[in-house]
Design brief:
Number of strands: 6
Radius of gyration: 27 Å
Strand order of the largest sheet: 1-3-2
Number of domains: 3
Distance between the termini: 58 Å
Largest sheet: 3 strands, antiparallel
Helix content: 25-40%
Strand content: 15-25%
């Protein structure tokens, strides 16, 4: 114990504006395309969730027996390519690929963001249900609903100063996958919306 002079103590929390600088850089980069701003932030968060990556490397040999042994001995995915040299010999190139685990601390942040997103989605769904709406579809951060009247989601804010709105109404886009495509409703007086 007397030889241990230092220790690394990890943070248990991050400041609430830890990613603000990076997010602002992305938002500024796509300021001319507002639709891409949300997409680039989602991509940034999604990259934190990557736990594996594919690596490739090559080996070379003039010996066909060595090259053929790569299939058996290396225990990796390999593609062997032949290169015919000017002196008449064949150079064998083994292109190897394998998946390796990323050892990063980003995944816990990614997981936390997904959990916070799920909590907010549940809160939004509760608002829709309490206002008499019927939930038709849930997406990562949006709910499509039917209601006899439009549901006012504008009075909900993230901050106490009421500067940052939690939700925004959107025009409902066409469903990518309709499970009940031929289902018909009659005598129903609902407007279809998305928040």
């Amino acid at each position: 114990m007397e030889n241990i002079l230092y220790e690394f103590i990890p943070y248990k929390t991050l400041p609430n504006d830890y990613f603000k600088k990076n997010i602002n850089i992305l938002l500024d980069a796509f300021s001319c395309e507002p639709d891409l701003q949300k997409l680039c932030i989602n991509a940034f968060v999604g990259l934190m969730g990557i736990t594996k990556r594919k690596v490739c490397f090559s080996k070379y040999s003039l010996c066909p027996y060595t090259a053929s042994a790569w299939y058996v001995n290396e225990n990796k995915n390999v593609f062997i390519k032949n290169h015919h040299l000017t002196n008449g010999e064949v150079l064998y190139q083994g292109i190897f690929s394998e998946e390796v685990l990323n050892e990063t601390t980003q995944y816990c942040i990614y997981s936390m963001i997904l959990q916070l997103e799920a909590l907010e989605l549940h809160k939004l769904e509760t608002i829709v249900l309490n206002c008499g709406g019927i939930v038709l579809d849930r997406n990562t951060d949006a709910i499509r609903y039917a209601s006899k009247k439009e549901i006012d989601i504008l009075p909900f804010y993230y901050d106490e100063e009421n500067n940052v709105r939690k939700y925004k109404p959107e025009n409902p886009a066409k469903l990518h996958f309709e499970h009940l495509a031929r289902f018909q409703c009659s005598n129903v007086d609902y407007d279809f919306n998305s928040v």
